[in-house]
Amino acid sequence: MDRLDAMSVLLAVVKTGSFSAASRTLGVPVASVSRKVSELEEHLRTGILIRSSRRMTLTDAGRSYVEACKRILESVEEAERAAAGEYSEPKGFLTVTAPVSFGRIHLLPVALEFLAAYPDIDLRLVLSDRHMDLLEDNVALAIRIGNLADSSLIATRIGLTRIVVCASPGYLASRGKPEKPEDLREHDCITFDNLTSPEAWRFVDADGDTLVPVRSRLTVNTAEAAIEAAVAGFGVLQDCRPATERRARGRAGSVRADPMGGEPDLSRPGTAAAEAARLPELREPAAQGETVVAPSLCLSGYSLRTLGASSLSPCMS
Questions:
Q1: Nearest residue to 232 via CA among 224, 242, 240
Q2: Residue (of 256, 248, 231) closest to 317 by Cα position
Q3: Residue 211 pairs with which residues in a beta bridge?
Q4: What domains does the chain contain, in order, with CATH numbers?
Q5: What is the pairing mode between strands 163-167 and 313-314?
Q6: Does the CA dihedral 210-211-215-216 come out positive or negative?
Q7: Are 123 and 111 in contact (CB under 8 A)?
Q8: Taken in order 129, 130, 136, 137, is the CA torsion positive or negative?
Q9: Pairing state of beta strands 236-240 and 163-167?
Q10: What is the pLDDT of residues 236-270, one digit of tens each?
């Protein structure tokens, strides 16, 4: 016996006042209606309805049971609507992960606005330069910088970023400024190993990709640590432009970021299925067509750019 179905039939009988009226309302034979009510009574081992030729009334146990049936069926209907997303106001718990610097600079302000707009949502924001396992760590959304490995995950591009090569003015004054990627062989390099290899850095030009061997005197696993080491004058750094610019601002000297690499997607689908399932690109309203990261990230070419007070200078022009 399907008890939820039998409860629905019982409520229809009580509401309409007879088996025949309930059968017409439900579109089922009268015999089926009578059988389901009898099965409920047999299951409960008590009578629910007092039947007579003129009228049908509920027993004391029947009245209590009918009220309980109403509450149960309303709860089930509410749960089904919630699972189907029919409520207009989103609610629940979300876990979102992003790289440390990018998340602190770009994602945190957006997250605070989101939470203010949706008071019934609680957010766990995991800022980590380690790639988390989305299924194992129960992560609903991850922001990645770079080309994604092939997988069954669905991804959409939300913007572009540039890779820059830079160093502190003090380091360049003592060691000289590399004019081309090959000059890096003679320099102390700082590598953020989530972004590039400590053995060779990749550069992109009109002729394609070039891998340049480097000596990574320091290899770290967070962008913040790599930038701090570069600001301290330890060596040459290759990093994403927004993190480098923001982290270095406010220091002595001037920063000018010189993009020497390509423009890796913040996210790129790894499968054809993911490509077909792309969401519309997110845009920053004030940028008039620029991507959500920042308008300055979509410039083409390798032009030198002055970005204000800081302590990292371009290595190449």
A1: 224
A2: 256
A3: 202
A4: 3-83 (1.10.10.10), 92-142 (3.40.190.10), 163-314 (3.40.190.10)
A5: antiparallel
A6: positive
A7: yes
A8: negative
A9: antiparallel
A10: 998 775 444 444 443 433 233 333 344 443 333 33
